[in-house]
Amino acid sequence: MQTTPLEAQDVLDYLKASGRWTEELRATLRETVRRFRLDHDPGNGKRSFLRRTYDCPFFAGGQLGCTIPSEVKPYGCLGFNAAAAAVTAGEGCHSDQALLARQDSAASAVDHRLGVSWEKLPLPLALLQLA
Q: How far is CA 6 from CA 23, 28, 86, 90, 127, in A?
């Protein structure tokens, strides 16, 4: 999931306030970044490809689903839903791209207040960079 700086800051604030921002979680995030090469530009030398797939470290699988409450989830996560019933492993999920595009244009000015040099990053990488 690609996330804006403001969305990542909301998640980071939640993790810290709930006592979940631990060394164990940071190690899990670093391993996710390493395993899926989230810190490498997936471009072809001429252009960069922003869309990437990776296993979100906050997804607990099965009936448990995401461990981040909807009040602080990145917008893309809120719109990333199963297209069929009984999905347990993320198969058949997709995002409402038109809705996300509208959100991006509305939120872009707010993101610049955090003083970061990126627009969107995968959530694990964004959290580690903000911290």
A: 23, 22, 32, 25, 11
Q: How far apart are CA 123 and CA 8, in angstroms?
A: 7
| The amino acid at 28 | T
Residue 25's pLDDT is what?
97
pTM: 0.73
8 Å CB contact between 30 and 125: no
Q: What is the domain partition of the chain in residue ranges?
A: 2-130
Residues 6+ away with beta carbon under 8 Å from 118: 5, 126, 129
The CA distances from residue 58 to 9, 15, 17, 92, in Å, are 15, 11, 16, 19
pLDDT at res. 118: 76
Q: How many CB atoms are located within 10 Å of the residue 111 CB? A: 19
Position 79 scores a pLDDT of: 72
Smallest Cα–Cα separation from 118: which of 39, 31, 37, 43?
39
